[in-house]
Please model this.
Amino acid sequence: GVVAAAGAATAIALLGDHGGATAGGGSGTSGPPSPVVRPSGADVPEAKAGWQATQQSPSPQVLCVDGVTVCVSVQHVWGLDEGGRTRWTVDGAALGGVFAIDPNTPRAVAGTDAGRLIVPVWAGQKTDLLSLDPADGRTDWRFTRDQKNASAVTSFEGVRAGKAYLLGSGDGQDRGLVPGGTHLWAVDLAARRTAWFHGEDTLLARSALLPDDDRVMVSNLDQLKVLDGTGAVVWTRKLAAMGIAAAGGYFLAPDAEGKVTALAPDDKGSTAWTADGVVPGSIRGGGFAAGEDGKLLYCLWKDADGGCSVGTLDPANGRPGRRTPLPADSPEAKYLGARLLYADGNLYRMGADAVIWALDPANGIPRWKYSGLKGKDPSKLAWSAGAGRLCVSDTTTQTITAVPAKGA
Model:
């Protein structure tokens, strides 16, 4: 690698084509030069919050849309204007249900599609899906899922080609009063109907959607499954993955040791490449952040001194690119795992001490940092970015903080 100075306190490790991945199921390692030149964050400009506002209840999810910051709690969905004031509120009680399970655990239970909010509301074994206008909270449409022995939606996994994918409780099998197992629910949004429903008698923790393929991968504690466009199982593989993703035409499965395995979406799930040394995602996800076109991934890499570098990974072949050593987290910070987010031309990283860094994706150099949440428990912070701002919900203090994408 080559170390180049970048300002008084930043060093960049340029790895170019140096190792890091092996095709066909092998393994490889790579990393910044040793010793690592760990920069100081002291000279990085401190960002100023645009606003911070206390909310009516904890919001385990926050979404940034044009002109509105949307908050989701157990009982309410509401929109905040550009100054953090409440513009509208939708009451779950008026709809006969709730929107989330746990008020204090950050979790994405709602999403967006074509400028509209897609929000589930449930009570018992009845689940409805709503389309809301984020400008005023008015309901565009609502439909009820016709599926027995299934209850709460626990995670909104994303929208692909007009279908929304949601994880939830209950596998669709009759197990008495309380549904058992979990499911992945695919919804045709245009037709407002269930496309397919896949139930498992285990805990489905995450799913990953390939942008240009109708297949989806789901993970539980120790195995992966790929489902086709009808929800049928294509293949199963024993692998305990710490968060999964999809990019470059492959499903990506990092394990607890930081080894990433890229699996082809074919009928066998063959290994395309592996790469070592990646920091797995935190309990809240964020192990990978995709760039503008989804063809380049950003991730954290383990360094010999115990710190981290931020760098790129080509999902098509597993080759690592440039890596930049990051300023160290506070000594008292606990291990968090990677937590990355890409939006508005910034690569955001939340440190284990809850300091948030806005990095230049081209070189990994910090543009600004926000220390207003330093010392908070990152596992209690939900975040989102887009529409020119970064928003963070602290479920402990019931506050929402908005920071401009430019830091001021």
About this structure: The helical segments are 92-95.
